[in-house]
Amino acid sequence: MSSTKAAVIRECRPNLTAYEAVYKKIHANPELSHCESETASLIIQHLRGLSADFEIRAGIGGHGLIAILRNGTGKTVLLRADIDALPVAERTGLEYASLRRQIGSDGKETPVMHACGHDFHAVCLLIAAETLLRARQFWTGTLVFLFQPAEEAGDGALGMVNDGLYDSSRHNCPIPDIVLGQHVAPIRAGVVASKNGPIMSSSDSLKVTIFGRGGHGSMPHRCIDPVVIASHIVVRLQTIVSRVVPPDEVAVITVGSIHAGEAENVISDRVFFTVNIRTLDEQVRHTVLDHVRRTITSECEAGFCEKGPQIEHHMSLPVTVNSENAEKKLRQTFAQIFGHEFVVAPKSSLASEDFSILAGSIGKPYCFWLFGGIDQQLWDSLAAQGKLDTVPINHSPDFAPAIHPTLETGGDALVAAALTFLESSP
């Protein structure tokens, strides 16, 4: 099969004009995490239009769904795409830009945008589904196309698993031998990048409340000022990276929000702030988390707080660590399919994913890779000027990947990856 994968893709890839229209529709109508009902319905409608051979099971962990394609005996391969969007106001100026506002699960209305490229992920997986459907004469086994909600909320994959994704008495998804996924990235369109070992970081988010004693701004000696205490904590947390984490390891600690009080002459009785921690090694992760908690608690004691801090660990995503054997096989395939457009990622990304939970929860290997979305002429022009740091990145209101060749690249990569682990047809 390895010598014919490129030929199979060329022969079986559908005309992408219809998929360009599907992409524009999804992009213009994004939905927040846990609110992806329209997107899921569109995907189901499209799959049913392709073939009745897809066994579709919906409503998994919210708006998650799977489409199963059986084709004789052999291995089971699961291909995953996430489908949710972000509370971002789009300013790309595209003719199909999102103007949508939506009430999220928190009850607040916000603008919504596919600022992370999940619209590409969904459409590329649909392209792969049709390609592999048309290519059934070239492979045997079982394919699972999984469309996951709520990746941005950090609980979508776990939600599907906990809702009985693999439970025979619930959704009965065939247990995969390998789980595969990808993410569009702010790199040159047409490029595919993989990496052995850690490719994306862990992410831990904390909500912290510091309790002081409020009062009049003119009488600080009668108060315990939580703003001062929180300020010491924010500064002190940065020394964990510089003085606790080994210099050859990676860790990032970000205090992303902080809030206290409403008036300048009132000392508040409490402060709320959020902390995000990213690491690439489990031992470093545990060390940093321990020191973050100790720092917060110690500064509260030093500030004479009458009540200890409240520390809520509200989101936790594991390190995404590619299987060595699986990544080695994929690297060979991608080099054959994409030639010089395939690259080995020089370093791990400090973005995070919940993708690995779909495999880790059942003890199966997985592999995750990146594919480029930045217009080639724009990329080359900015590279020549030394201005690649101005390229709009994921989560930016200006993030606007080029439709082509991004759709082709993402679809082809999924098909090539699936064929790598499926048995070739006799």
UniProtKB/TrEMBL annotation:
<dbReference type="Pfam" id="PF01546">
    <property type="entry name" value="Peptidase_M20"/>
</dbReference>
<feature type="binding site">
    <location>
        <position position="116"/>
    </location>
    <ligand>
        <name>Mn(2+)</name>
    </ligand>
</feature>
<dbReference type="Pfam" id="PF07687">
    <property type="entry name" value="M20_dimer"/>
</dbReference>
<dbReference type="InterPro" id="IPR011650">
    <property type="entry name" value="Peptidase_M20_dimer"/>
</dbReference>
<feature type="binding site">
    <location>
        <position position="152"/>
    </location>
    <ligand>
        <name>Mn(2+)</name>
    </ligand>
</feature>
<feature type="binding site">
    <location>
        <position position="118"/>
    </location>
    <ligand>
        <name>Mn(2+)</name>
    </ligand>
</feature>
<dbReference type="GO" id="GO:0046872">
    <property type="term" value="F:metal ion binding"/>
</dbReference>
<keyword id="KW-0479">Metal-binding</keyword>
<dbReference type="InterPro" id="IPR017439">
    <property type="entry name" value="Amidohydrolase"/>
</dbReference>
<comment type="similarity">
    <text>Belongs to the peptidase M20A family.</text>
</comment>
<dbReference type="InterPro" id="IPR002933">
    <property type="entry name" value="Peptidase_M20"/>
</dbReference>
<feature type="binding site">
    <location>
        <position position="183"/>
    </location>
    <ligand>
        <name>Mn(2+)</name>
    </ligand>
</feature>
<dbReference type="InterPro" id="IPR036264">
    <property type="entry name" value="Bact_exopeptidase_dim_dom"/>
</dbReference>
<dbReference type="GO" id="GO:0016787">
    <property type="term" value="F:hydrolase activity"/>
</dbReference>
<keyword id="KW-0464">Manganese</keyword>
<feature type="domain" description="Peptidase M20 dimerisation">
    <location>
        <begin position="204"/>
        <end position="300"/>
    </location>
</feature>
<comment type="similarity">
    <text>Belongs to the peptidase M20 family.</text>
</comment>
<keyword id="KW-0378">Hydrolase</keyword>
<protein>
    <recommendedName>
        <fullName>Peptidase M20 dimerisation domain-containing protein</fullName>
    </recommendedName>
</protein>
